[in-house]
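hey so u asked for the seq, here:
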Amino acid sequence: MLEIVGLTGGWGPTTIVEHLALSIAAGETVAVVGRNGVGKTTLLELIAGRAQLRSGEIRVGGRDLRWLPIHERARAGIGYVPQQREVFRSLTVKEHLAIAARPGTWTEAAVLELFPALAARLHALGSHLSGGEQQMLAIARALVTNPTVLLMDEPSEGLAPVVVEQLVAAIRGLVGGRTLAVLLVEQRVDIALDLASRCIVMDRGSIVRDAPSSDYRSGTIDIGDMMGLGREA
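ran it, structure tokens below
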């Protein structure tokens, strides 16, 4: 569903991701882990169209998206949950969902079933939501665009443990549907390995390991050692 070939890009004159190749099948969830600053978020921003592409190809369902603007990539099937959530402070939960909605399986009713806490806050402004509620809204807003590829950047970041548990349970139900191709950046390795069937480790803008999550969980691959690559730099 998502295929990346030779992806190189970054911000301004700075190249952060270099010659990266990755493919994700429909229904597959792939986690991206690595130390801070290795290019995980930039990878998602390049796919979404927010960072500057230098070279390479980004294909969704066989369609090349590399020169399309952000809104056209969304229409082509890219759903994006940014690290900072980017909730509109002056819009209600219901308005967020209404402006993003496109025809498909994921309706307002469907996302409220996935995130019951949002149903009770349907008419609350974005500025009045807790951090956990904002994160749920950011995911719900992406889902109602009815994407074929969902990008999620650090969904557990900055949230209380009890909220993280609720969010992980909801995301587990989401990826368990086996219809979306999901690319998940997550700093907490335990969550990444729990949610994804496959896990890639990034270092210095490239993928240094791509293996089934079971290999990391079993200890066949020492993920802690893998994430220490390049520490001398």
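Strands lie at 2-11, 14-24, 29-33, 52-60, 63-64, 78-81, 149-153, 181-185, 198-203, 206-212. The CA atoms of residues 77 and 147 lie 4 Å apart.
lmk if thats what u needed
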